[in-house]
Write a structure and sequence with these properties.
Length: 384
C-alpha cells in the first residue's frame, strides 16, 4: 500500500485539470496576444479561469493576476507593493514564521533601506494583535502574514489583524499568503479587509508553475517583470495558458462540496492526532482542535531524527515531510519550530503529515501502524 501524506508540499493534479491542459498543449495552443481566432480562443480560456477564481473569492475578475506560482505572487505583493508605496513610508511588518518566499523578500527590502518589524508568535504559532497594534506606526505601508502556517497549520487571526491595521493606518496595505489556506477555508478578501492575496496552483490539485495574486482595485503594485505588458502590465510574459486553465479548473473543483470535504479532513486529523499521541515519545505541535487548519499535523518524535523517520516511512511507501519541503532539499532548523519555543532536542525530530480531500482513512491507518512499529525501534537504536 502507498500513503501520500505530503499534500502541503504538493498535490496530485486533478484529472479534469490535466485533461484540459493536454488539450491546450496539443490542440488549442494559440497565443492569447495573437489577433487571429487561435489567439482569441486561448484568451477565452484565460478569461474563463480568471472568472472561476474570482467567483471563489467574490471579487472582480480584473483583480486577479496570474503568476508562475506562490513564490512569485508573494514577491510581487511584497516587493512590488513596498516599492509602489514607499513615498508614504519605509516601515513594513511581517511575522517570525513566514515561508521563505515571504521572509526573503522582506530581507531584500531591508537591504533597500526599509525598516522591518518581525512579530513573534505564541507556543501555538499565532501572533498577538496587541503586538501588531504596537508595531503599527504612521509610516507603516505594508503588513504581510500567512493565513495558515505551512509547517504546523496555525491559523492567524486575519480578519482581526485587518481591523487593527486599518484602524491605525487606513492606507497601509495588508497582504495575506493564502497558499496553505485557499481551498481549506472560505476566503473573501473584501469582507476580510485583505488588499493582496497569494495563491499557488499545485497546493489545490492544479499544476505546478501556476498561481495568482489578488490585488484589490486601486491598490498600487510595482511590476517586477517588464516586457510585453501582459496581465494589464502587472506581469509581462506570454501567458502560460495550459497552467492558467488548469488552475482555474482546480480552483472551481476545490470549492465544490467544500463543507463536507473540510469536515472530513478535520475528522481524519482528529483521529490521527488521537492515535499518534498514544505512541510513546510522540507529541503534536500547535493547536489540536479545529482552531488549526484541517490538513496539517506536525509531529515530534523524541530521540528520532526527522530524516531517519522520513526515510523509514518512505521504505513503506509512506510519504511525509521533514520541515516544509519547499526549500530545495536543504535541511535547516525550522524558524517556525524555534519561534513556538519547541524544545531544542525536538527541533530536528519533527515531521509533517499533511492531508488532502482525497486522503483516506486506510492511508491514515497504514501510517499509524507503521509509526507504532518504527518509533520504538528507531528510538531504541538511537539510544544504543
Amino acid at each position: 500500500m502507498e500513503a501520500y501524506l505530503d499534500n502541503s508540499a504538493t498535490t496530485q493534479c486533478s484529472q479534469a485539470a490535466a485533461d484540459l491542459m493536454m488539450r491546450l498543449l496539443r490542440e488549442d495552443y494559440g497565443n492569447p496576444s495573437s489577433l487571429h481566432n487561435r489567439g482569441m480562443e486561448a484568451e477565452n480560456y484565460v478569461k474563463e479561469a480568471r472568472k472561476r477564481i474570482a467567483q471563489t473569492l467574490k471579487v472582480n475578475e480584473k483583480e486577479i493576476y496570474f503568476t508562475s506560482g506562490g513564490s512569485e505572487s508573494n514577491n510581487l505583493a511584497i516587493v512590488g507593493g513596498a516599492l509602489a508605496n514607499k513615498r508614504s513610508g519605509m516601515h513594513v511588518i511581517t511575522t517570525m514564521i513566514e515561508h521563505p518566499s515571504v521572509a526573503n523578500p522582506f530581507a531584500y527590502l531591508e537591504e533597500l533601506g526599509f525598516a522591518v518589524t518581525y512579530l513573534p508568535v505564541d507556543a501555538y504559532g499565532c501572533i498577538s494583535l496587541e503586538d501588531l497594534q504596537e508595531a503599527m506606526c504612521s509610516d507603516t505601508i505594508l503588513v504581510s502574514m500567512m493565513h495558515v502556517n505551512n509547517e504546523i497549520g496555525a491559523v492567524e487571526p486575519i480578519e482581526e489583524a485587518a481591523r487593527v491595521i486599518k484602524q491605525k493606518n487606513p492606507n497601509c496595505l495588508f497582504h495575506v499568503d493564502a497558499i496553505q489556506s485557499y481551498g481549506k477555508f472560505r476566503i473573501y478578501p473584501k469582507r476580510m479587509g485583505i488588499d493582496l492575496l497569494s495563491v499557488s496552483g499545485h497546493k489545490i490539485h492544479g499544476p505546478k508553475g501556476s498561481g495568482f495574486l489578488f490585488v484589490r482595485d486601486k491598490v498600487k503594485v510595482h511590476p517586477l517583470i517588464l516586457g510585453g505588458g501582459q496581465e494589464r502590465g502587472m506581469r509581462s510574459g506570454t501567458e502560460n495558458v495550459p497552467a492558467i486553465a488548469g488552475l482555474g479548473q482546480a480552483a472551481m473543483e476545490i470549492y465544490q462540496n467544500f463543507e463536507s470535504n473540510q469536515t472530513r479532513m478535520y475528522r481524519l486529523r482528529d483521529y490521527f492526532i488521537q492515535e499518534v499521541e498514544q505512541i510513546d515519545g510522540v507529541s503534536v505541535n500547535g493547536h489540536k482542535d479545529h482552531s488549526n487548519a484541517p490538513h496539517i499535523v506536525s509531529v515530534s518524535v523524541s530521540g528520532v531524527r526527522s530524516e531517519v523517520l522520513l526515510h523509514a516511512l518512505e521504505d513503506k511507501q509512506i510519504y511525509v515531510s521533514a520541515g516544509s519541503a519547499c526549500s530545495s532539499n536543504k535541511p535547516a532548523v525550522s524558524r517556525t519550530l524555534q519561534s513556538i519555543g519547541l524544545k531544542r532536542e525536538l527541533l530536528e525530530s519533527t515531521v509533517r503529515f499533511s492531508f488532502s480531500v482525497h486522503t483516506t482513512k486506510e492511508e491514515i491507518d497504514y501510517a499509524l501502524e507503521a509509526m507504532r512499529g518504527l518509533v520504538p525501534m528507531l528510538a531504541k537504536y538511537r539510544r544504543s
